[in-house]
Design brief:
GO terms for molecular function: metal ion binding; metalloaminopeptidase activity. By secondary structure, the protein is of the alpha+beta class.
């Protein structure tokens, strides 16, 4: 099976042997993770799609791949139209497509360890009128044909020290226990890998770019916890750190353990716990309480130690990025750089800090037309030279023991066109509007999102992704529950009230298909804000910018900026100079000083 078409043919044969008429292949793992280990990259193996979100449906006579607006161009480059229909979401859905194309009496398979119960309910309802049925597969049929499928990572757990985490695991588990008592529940199943890492103050290396370990946790109302993880991941240091209140079990035993809660009320997050978890609990006689895992909100509210760690990581990372930006400016006009070689050089600058543990996601290193693909992933096949006349976009980040970074900058290769400068400046105006927003406590990200778009809307323009996402503390670069995005954004995260302590990205953009892409991204911390003369009974919030790196001044049309916008830009650059200037020397320091001078 050397081609993706061959793999599709083989899957259809396997389905027929199992008396299944179709199957759904999501891009996730047993923990509903966004980024997954190599062993769980089923969608990419089957279809060739290398994006970070999507799914496919396979019937005997047709198939479809589902992606959102970030991947409209990318999916067409990577997945054959001869094999798959391209379906955009949320306009289309797996449920709607199956309802239209599944034949009467068809048996559509799914892996209950890779879908939520809500998804099962939605698809079951959609199929009800067709006479087709949704069938839980005992084992995943795709795994049967993926003969060289990688094994899960054997990497051991490591301890995240309390002074870096800012709170002990015992204190965190006590908070969860109190929450369970209030809920009148007996236990909570924690399935999200970053939540387990946060709760127990441990980190792992089982998922590329996210420091987590494949595991499950069950927290009881007295604070005692059962951790299910491969035994060979447990070092003596980790065992001592976890202590007697955390009982250790093999990850393979979790389904059996879930069947031992007869008569108990057990909380399982409907968005994070897969259908198999609820099914195992109910089969054992438990009552499933569908409620959001409390660790989701708790870990989003960064404490003083986490904020201090992120500031240190941002300064270190910003200095590395600044060295890279100067290097690109000097080197790109030669035409010798490529997207891959540039990304590798930035990785090297980050490694040179001596503190980098991993990238926080695969760098989006995109030049020219590739920059118009918001989540472009460069490969050996797509690797393009960075040429004069183009805009080069680099969206990247690092994982450090004290923080997770994510930043986007754009570099012009040679003089930019007036249109490029106009679009860049409008994106900058939207970025500044978000960065300077002052709003009541409880305001949602959906209410903030329009701030970023107004300067583009005024020119009849827009961008097809959210403005910002939550960020973890040496954890997932994309973290909920908060998000800055339109109200219609899938998952409802954009409706989450913003609270002091939440970290988010601020990344409006503009993309001209076939020509260039623009995005300016900094990370923000939500902070309490006193408004002189304001209502003393109304708590207000604002954002503090955490990312420290210069914004390319040759792309800015200063005539489009208001006096307040110029003032913000000058203040920001003065802060960049003050914080990362001392970390640079020689020509790098001189270059930064010029980039951070007041805007003309």
């Amino acid at each position: 099976m050397t081609t993706h078409h061959d793999r599709l043919v083989a899957l259809r044969a396997e389905l027929a042997a199992r008396h299944l008429d179709g199957f759904v292949v999501p891009l996730t793992d047993e923990h509903m993770s966004e980024y997954v280990g190599a062993y769980a990259q089923r969608l990419a193996w089957l279809t060739g799609f290398a994006g970070s979100a999507g799914s496919a449906t396979v019937l005997a006579d047709r198939a479809a791949i589902f992606t959102d607006a970030r991947y409209t161009l990318q999916v067409r480059e990577q997945v054959s139209a001869d094999d798959y229909d391209y379906i955009g979401v949320p306009q289309g859905s797996v449920a709607a497509w199956l309802a239209e194309h599944a034949s009467a009496g068809a048996r559509i398979g799914y892996d209950p360890w890779l879908h939520t119960r809500a998804w099962v309910t939605e698809v079951t309802a959609a199929l009800a009128g067709t006479g087709a049925t949704l069938v839980a597969a005992d084992t995943n049929p795709l795994d049967a044909i993926w003969t060289d499928r990688p094994a899960p990572s054997p990497a051991p757990l490591v301890v995240q020290p309390d002074h870096v985490a800012g709170a002990s695991s015992a204190a965190k588990r006590a908070e969860v226990a109190d929450w369970l008592v209030e809920k009148k529940a007996d236990a909570l199943v924690v399935a999200a890998l970053d939540s387990i890492a946060w709760l127990l103050n441990v980190r792992g290396a089982d998922v590329d770019h996210t420091p987590v370990a494949l595991s499950y946790a069950i927290v009881h109302a007295n604070g005692e916890t059962d951790l299910f993880v491969a035994p060979d991941k447990l070092t003596d240091a980790v065992r001592q750190h976890l202590g007697n209140a955390v009982r250790l079990h093999d990850r393979a035993d979790v389904a059996t353990a879930l069947g031992r809660f007869a008569g108990k009320r057990v909380v399982a997050d409907p968005t994070g716990a897969v259908a198999a978890i609820a099914q195992a609990l109910e089969a054992g006689g438990a009552s499933v309480v569908a409620s959001r895992d409390p660790t989701i909100l708790l870990k989003s509210l960064k404490n003083k130690a986490e904020v201090a760690g992120h500031r240190a990581a941002s300064a270190r990372d910003g200095a590395a990025l600044t060295r890279f930006l100067r290097w690109v400016e000097r080197t790109a006009p030669t035409g010798e750089l490529t997207e891959l070689s540039a990304a590798a050089k930035l990785h090297q600058f980050r490694r040179d800090t001596g503190a980098l543990l991993d990238l926080s996601f695969p760098a989006i290193s995109a030049t020219g037309a590739h920059g118009a693909i918001p989540h472009y992933h460069v490969t050996q096949e797509s690797n393009a030279p960075i040429l004069p006349g183009q805009l080069y976009l680099i969206d990247s980040g690092g994982q450090y023991a004290d923080g997770t970074t994510d930043v986007t900058r754009v570099v012009p290769v040679g003089p930019p066109t007036p249109e490029m400068r106009d679009r860049f400046t409008r994106v900058l105006k939207g970025h500044i509007a978000v960065a300077t927003a002052i709003f009541p406590d409880g305001t949602s990200g959906a209410q903030i999102d329009a701030f970023a778009r107004r300067p583009l809307w005024e020119a009849g323009l827009d961008f097809g992704h959210g403005t910002g996402h939550g960020v973890g503390a040496y954890l997932a670069v994309h973290e909920g529950p908060q998000r800055i995005a339109p109200p219609s954004y899938p998952g409802g995260q954009s409706l989450e009230p913003l609270r002091a302590g939440m970290m988010l990205s601020n990344e409006p953009g503009y993309y001209k298909a076939g020509e260039y892409g623009i995005r300016i991204e900094n990370l923000l911390l939500t902070v309490a804000h006193a408004v002189p003369g304001g209502d003393p009974d109304r708590a207000m919030l604002a954002f503090e910018t955490l990312t420290m790196a210069p914004i390319e001044r040759t792309l800015i049309d200063a005539a489009l900026l208001t006096e307040q916008e110029r003032a913000w830009l000058d203040r920001y650059h003065a802060q960049v100079q003050r914080i990362i200037g001392p970390l640079l020397d020689g020509d790098d320091a001189t270059w930064l000083a010029a980039k951070c001078a007041p805007i003309a």
